[in-house]
Amino acid sequence: MKKNVSYSEVNISKLISPSPAQPTGRVHAGEIMQMMYDAARKVASKHAGTDVTAVRVDEMIFLHPLRVGTVITCHACLTFVGKTSMDVEVSLYVEGLEPSKAALKSYFTMVALDDSQHPIAVPELELTTDAEKKRFEEGRQRYHLHHKNITL
């Protein structure tokens, strides 16, 4: 059964508190990476209906400093689905910046797992908009570029 992109997409918001911050008031990158991973995992797990694991994370480039007291939101959605793997786009937005500009974006390759932790097939992705079709093709290109390097 096919599932559409909106079925599994998520938004996770968080107020950056002093505990995950450096003495300069900027947040530790690891905290942001964890939040992005959690969002990607939630999307992939919901689409697959099973446990998932990350096998690849594209680069993360911080475009804006993230400081204590800032509200950040992760938006995550599927861009491409293969046989057992899923490409999840995760964008991080900072409250107060232009809504159309992400402070950080990355792509996570997630693989669906059965109870024995072996890869299993995932539902197809139903594409309903031109933007989804474009992201799907970009995801397919990333998949073919990196697939040969992924082993489980």
Per-chain topology:
Blueprint: E1 3-4, H1 5-8, E2 10-15, H2 29-48, E3 51-57, E4 71-81, E5 85-94, E6 104-113, E7 125-126, H3 130-146
Parallel strand pairs: 1-7
Antiparallel strand pairs: 2-4, 3-6, 4-5, 5-6
Helix count, DSSP H or I runs of 4 or more residues: 3
Form type: globular
Question: Which topology does CATH recognise?
Answer: Thiol Ester Dehydrase, Chain A
The helix/strand order is EHEHEEEEEH
Largest sheet: 5 strands, antiparallel
Mean pLDDT level? 88
Poorly predicted sequence stretches spanning 5 or more consecutive residues: none
How many domain regions? 1
Share of helical residues: 25-40%
Cα-atom radius of gyration: 16 Å
CA distance, first residue to last residue? 25 Å
Hey, roughly how much beta strand do the residues contain?
Answer: 25-35%
The number of E-state strands comes to: 7
Q: Strand order, main sheet: write it out.
A: 2-4-5-6-3
Nutshell version of this structure?
This protein has helices at 5-8, 29-48, 130-146; strands spanning 3-4, 10-15, 51-57, 71-81, 85-94, 104-113, 125-126. The protein is α+β, with helices and mostly antiparallel strands and 152 residues long.
